[in-house]
Every structure is written in C-alpha cells, then in structure tokens.
Design brief:
It is a single chain. By secondary structure, the protein is α/β, with parallel strands linked by helices. It contains 8 helices and 13 strands. It has helices at residues 13-22, 24-27, 37-41, 53-62, 66-75, 83-88, 203-213, 220-226, and strands spanning 2-7, 29-30, 33-34, 45-48, 78-81, 89-93, 106-111, 122-126, 138-142, 147-151, 158-162, 181-186, 189-192. Strands 1, 2, 3, 4, 5, 11, 12 and 13 form an 8-stranded mixed beta sheet that branches. The longest helix is centred in the last third of the chain and has 11 residues, at 203-213. The protein is globular, with a radius of gyration of 16 Å. The chain binds glutamine.
C-alpha cells in the first residue's frame, strides 16, 4: 500500500482525494488528508492542491508544517497543482505585497496569476506526454493560473505538456517559450499550472500514482525520478 497524502489546509484538496480514491484498488494506494506534521510523516508522496498559495503557506506555518514540508520535498515525491505549483517553485513574481513563502523543490521561476485574474480563467485541451489514452486530450482548467517564466537550472527538467500557441491567452510566437509550459517534472516532483482534479478525468492522478507504484511500494522515490515517461 502506498500513501499519497493531500495537503488539506486550504483549496481543492477534497477533489484530489476523490480522484485518487477512484484509483485506490488499481494502484493499491490510500489518500489521506494531511493537516499536521504527524499526518505528513505517514506519507510516501504528497499532493499540494490549488487554492491560494499565500494562505496555504501561512496555514502551513501556523500548523507547524512549513519545515516538515521542506524536509519532505527533499526526499519524497510531491505534485503541486496551481497554487501548489507556486509553492514548489524556486521564485515567484506578482507575490502579494506581504511576500510569499515558498517550499521550493522545482527550479522554475513562476508568475502568480500570470494569465490575469479570475475572469481571465480558461480551459484548453492539452496533449500530455505519458498519459494513458494519449489520443484523447486532457482538459486543462486554468484558474488564476501561474505562468512558468523560466527554468532556473541546468538540471534535467522534463516538459510533459505545453499550451498550444494558438490557445494562449496572449500571443506568443515562439513555441518553445517557457510560458507555454503547463506541466513538467524535475527529479522527484511534478508541477501542473492547471487543475486536473477539477475534471472527471483520472488520468493525471493515474500518471502520478503509476510512477510511484511501479516500484512495488519499496523505492517509490527513485522510480519517479528515473522513469522514462
Ligand atoms: N493565484 C492563486 C495563488 O496565487 C492560485 C490559483 C489556483 O490555485 N487556482 O495562489
């Protein structure tokens, strides 16, 4: 049994739990909510949901989770969606004026609310490298989504989905512009700037669980870091 915790301080944690519960028999996983350092200690991997990154960081500090989360990220796989992606990033622009505490783990610079405010939220069909049924696009739901501004590392980063240039909220000519990146992996971690948990499509959660479970529950971390799709 592999325990994939979901950080449940604020945001769309219940939706992530629903998606993972649909996969619990297939991948032999449990998906508990994480609200305390003790909850976190029981996890093999973690999802940090979307919501509001400043609030999640503040609540993590108040619950004594900030340092345990940073330590967890050093050794175990973490998937950050939207606000969670911001928290996993190395640096953020457009932070609230009181600043933004980050957990780090993925060497990208990211812009909070990079495509604009709530009314600029949008959906886009995405081709995602490594999902099951690759011919069926995955619906990316972008809500006050962050935008990857650049990669701040020479370490290998695997880009697994980009927004097609013609679907970008603002025109970008270069298809390799980092702002088109909406899903990527680095080392143990996965980052998506959109909300897979808000669809009825379990394939992204299947992708995460599959890469953890391939190792039979023993060396879950190296499995995710070295697998090829
Ligand atoms: N803009 C939000 C933030 O700063 C993230 C939005 C989301 O998670 N949907 O945290």
């Amino acid at each position: 049994m592999i325990t994939i915790g979901i950080l449940a301080l604020q945001g769309a944690f219940a939706e992530h739990q629903t998606r993972l519960q649909n996969l619990r028999l297939k991948h032999k996983i449990t998906a508990p909510l994480v609200k305390t350092p003790e909850d976190l200690q029981r996890c093999d991997a973690l999802i940090i949901p979307g919501g509001e990154s400043t609030t999640i960081a503040l609540l993590a500090r108040l619950s004594g989770l900030l340092e345990p989360l940073k330590e967890f990220i050093r050794v175990k796989p973490v998937w950050g969606t939207c606000a969670g992606a911001i928290l996993l990033s190395q640096s953020v622009t457009n932070a609230k004026k009181d600043g933004q505490e980050l957990l780090g783990g993925i060497d990208v610079d990211i812009a909070r609310n990079g495509w604009g405010s709530q009314v600029e939220s949008f959906e886009a069909p995405l081709d995602v490298n490594g999902l099951s049924d690759p011919s069926v696009p995955f619906t990316g739901i972008f809500i006050r989504a962050p935008v990857v501004l650049g990669l701040s590392t020479d370490a290998p980063i695997r880009i697994i989905a980009r927004l097609p240039p013609h679907l970008l909220p603002e025109p970008i000519d270069d298809p390799n512009d980092p702002r088109t990146i909406v899903a990527l992996r680095q080392g143990l971690h996965l980052l998506t700037t959109f909300h897979p948990e808000l669809t009825q499509d379990d394939r992204f959660h299947d992708y995460f669980a599959r890469h953890l479970c391939d190792c039979g529950g023993r060396r879950t971390l190296s499995c995710f870091a070295t697998s090829t799709n």
